[in-house]
Amino acid sequence: NIPNTVKALQNITINATLKDSNDNILINKDIILKINGKTITTLQTDANGNITYNYTTKNMGLYNINLIYIGSDVYIATNTSNIVSVESLKTSIILNNITTKYNDTTTIVVGVIDEFGNDVNGGKVIVKINGKTLKDTDGNIIFAYVTTTLSMKPKTYNITAVYGGKSYYESARTNNSTLIITKRDAVVSFEDIPQPEAGSDVEIKVKVVDADADTLVNTGCVILKLNGKTLKDTDGQIIYTNVINGTAVVKYNIPSNFKAKEYKLTAVFANNLYNRAEANSILTIIKASNNTNTT
């Protein structure tokens, strides 16, 4: 009782019963097992005249399974053969949706299993994002298990994995999974805030730090608001100040008609790689000093 077809790496269960011409079972008789002409083992019939053996296939192709009884003084020799075709294993890929932040080091885990749900060992997997093969900084293809820094602009991408197959494993390709790259977060704060007079020039320093990496941000710009109104230059244009090495130095001339009092000061940081971030504080306009001399 031997199947005609099995899958690679699966067991072929070989069952046989030894009987004489009168249908009597023969016990404790040696049966030689050969596969493709090579002796695998010698089996002995049990109390019911049966032998059982599990053989694990390792390669695809045809297997000639031969059971041989060499006979005795009473019984003549006999043998039987079966041809078993060993076929390749279908595979499938497990690739979950991924959400990560821009420029974060991201691990992309690709699982490959065979058609019986067993882990596949051997072969290579490549990962593609929007159809483009993922490569390292030297331009070499990255094979899964993949750990890489994703510096693509924040948005949603299609991510696929391709398993090239190996030996008795067939190749496979995933349907599109989703890779979501989100913007990073920043922390905005004011450095020492001066107390200017109305009509004077002032410099207000704003510090911008990456919230996750705790590093200085070197991109984007800052605008300031006083009591909710965005600061503009003398031409009525919004004052945008670039963030350089974690600092934006905003220069502004306090209008001469500003009253001496406290104003709500808001700094807003904006960039296409970072979420909007802001900080609030107080800007105190002081009374103009009286420099009039009397004689």
Q: Which consecutive residue ranges, at least 5 long each, have pLDDT under 50?
A: none
- Listing every helix as H and every strand as E from the N terminus to the C terminus, the arrangement reads EEEEEEEEEEEEEEEEEEEEEEEEE
Total number of helical segments? 0
- Shape descriptor reads rod-shaped
Question: What class do helices, strands and sheet pairing give?
Answer: mainly beta
Strand proportion: over 45%
Describe the protein's architecture and organization.
The protein starts with a strand and ends in an 11-residue tail after the last strand. The strands form seven sheets. Strands 9, 12, 13, 15, 16 and 17 form a six-stranded mixed sheet that branches. The protein has a five-stranded mixed sheet with strand order 1-7-6-3-4, with no helix packed on it. A hairpin with a 2-residue loop joins strand 24 and strand 25. It has 295 residues and is mainly beta. The protein is rod-shaped, with a radius of gyration of 39 Å.
Quick summary:
The chain has 295 residues and is mostly beta strands.
Sum up the structure in keywords.
25 strands; 295 residues; mainly beta; 5-stranded mixed beta sheet
Layout of helices and strands:
Blueprint: E1 5-7, E2 11-17, E3 30-35, E4 38-44, E5 50-56, E6 61-69, E7 78-87, E8 91-94, E9 98-101, E10 105-108, E11 111-114, E12 125-129, E13 132-133, E14 146-149, E15 155-163, E16 172-173, E17 177-182, E18 186-190, E19 201-210, E20 221-226, E21 229-230, E22 241-242, E23 247-253, E24 262-271, E25 274-284
Parallel strand pairs: 1-7, 9-17
Antiparallel strand pairs: 2-5, 3-4, 3-6, 6-7, 8-11, 10-14, 12-13, 12-15, 15-16, 15-17, 18-19, 19-23, 20-21, 20-22, 20-24, 24-25
